[in-house]
Each structure stands twice: as C-alpha cells, then as structure tokens.
Amino acid sequence: QVRLVESGGGLVQPGGSLRLACAVSGTIFHVMRWYRQTPGQQREFVGNITNPRETTVADSVKGRFTISRTYAQNTMYLQMNKIKPEDTAVYYCNADQNGVDYWGQGTQVTVSS
User: Fold this and answer.
1) Distance (Å, rounded) from C-alpha 43 to C-alpha 51?
2) What is the tens place of the pLDDT at every residue in 36-51?
3) Which candidate in 10, 47, 48, 112 could, as Cys together with 57 as Cys, close a disulfide (CB 3.0–4.6 Å)?
4) CA angle 11–31–75, rounded 5-degree value
5) Peptide bond just before 39 cis, omega within 30 deg
6) Cβ atoms 46, 91 nearer than 8 A
7) What are the start-end ranges of the E strands in the chain?
8) Do residues 111 and 88 make contact, with C-beta atoms less than 8 angstroms apart?
9) CA angle, residues 56, 101, 46, in degrees to nearest 5
10) Is 85 helix (H, G, I), strand (E, B) or coil?
11) 113 residues of the chain, pLDDT tens digit each
C-alpha cells in the first residue's frame, strides 16, 4: 500500500525556520511535490523534486524554501527559512504513479508572533 505521511508542521514566528517531512512507503516516486492550501483557496504549488534531485520552487518561496529527498529513508523534505505570515497554510506532499494521484494528509504551518 502506498502512503505519504507529512510531519513537522507547527507554530513558528515570522523570520523563523521549519522543516517539513513527507515519508513515503510502498513505492519510490520519480517526481514528488509540495503544495499548500489556505481556507477557501485552491492548493498552491510550492515546489517539486525529481529523481535525481533536481528541484523547482514557486516564485513566492524562491530563496527561502528548499526541497530535498533521501532515498535511504524514502523521505522528501521542505526546508522553510525566513518564514512569512503568508506562508501559513496546510502543506501537502503529492506524487503520482501509473495514473494514480497520491496525497498525504497534510501538516499545518502557522506563522504568528
């Protein structure tokens, strides 16, 4: 069974840092993505990482967020630095394989002083 499980969210002050993780079980994906969503809004693409580790991030987080992955633990990370209040959202990891779209349950990131 394929599962994606996010962790690492929480409350962080503006300017702070946080690292999210997405642990994968059941398969290895070629491309993995991070999205985020705030209430009433569509999910926003944050970035992705391919196999090997080529990354792309959205302009809104460029220079602040980086994506990495480890194959040993089959885990993708989102390192969030210089966090802003507008980064408050539920963060989801996503991947697809053989026409099936997989999502994690999401992890809440709240930016507040």
Assistant:
1) 24
2) 999 999 999 999 999 7
3) 47
4) 50
5) no
6) yes
7) 3-7, 10-12, 18-25, 32-37, 44-49, 55-57, 65-70, 75-80, 89-97, 100-103, 107-111
8) yes
9) 25
10) helix
11) 999 999 999 999 999 999 999 999 999 999 999 999 999 999 999 999 997 779 999 999 999 999 999 988 899 999 999 999 999 999 999 999 999 999 999 999 999 99
Cα–chain center distance at 67:
8
Residue whose entry in the numeric block shows the structure tokens 């792309």? 56
Collapse the DSSP code of 112 into the 3-class scheme (helix H, G, I; strand E, B; otherwise coil) and give the result: coil
Joined tokens for residue 42:
């569509």
Tokens standing for 63?
Answer: 């220079």
